[in-house]
Amino acid sequence: MTDIMITEDFPKSEIEFDLRFSNQKACYDYLFKQKWPDGFICKKCGHNKHWVSTRNLYICTQCEHQHSLTAGTIMDSSKKPITYWFKAMWWFTTRKSGVNAVNLKELLGLGSYHTAWCWLQKLRRCTIGKDRKKLAGRVEVDEFFIGGKQSGKPGRGANGKIIAAVAVER
Length: 170
Hints:
Layout: H1 14-20, H2 24-35, E1 50-52, E2 57-60, E3 66-68, H3 82-94, H4 101-108, H5 113-126, E4 139-146, E5 162-169
Antiparallel strand pairs: 1-2, 2-3, 4-5
């Protein structure tokens, strides 16, 4: 996967996000600046002039090598509009309680739960550090149960609850 680092101010609200990434062109312009901060450079021949195809491929005017802004990213080969991906990433990274596949399907108007689930899996894999190491030193661990209030046995062993554990290195 290609690493993309945020090098500018992150939108502070959903309204600001919507204004900034309201259409495909705005999303592709953002990716272009991330990939080529000093302007287009062909990875094959080093030439700096290009044209853009109707499929948003950047084609070198010298060697005609095609460059995709989404190649090597979680958006690679997706049939959905890039604006959907940007919105999914916004919700994934900013919602305090997170977003699940059912929410994402409804929020984006996706036709299938499976698509939303796959997108979330890809987004979750992106949050894992490449050179991660085992926790060491002072580590705090806690567990909790996920699931709404239900009648019956509370806490450990309750029906319809899922246990989750978290750990953090201090």
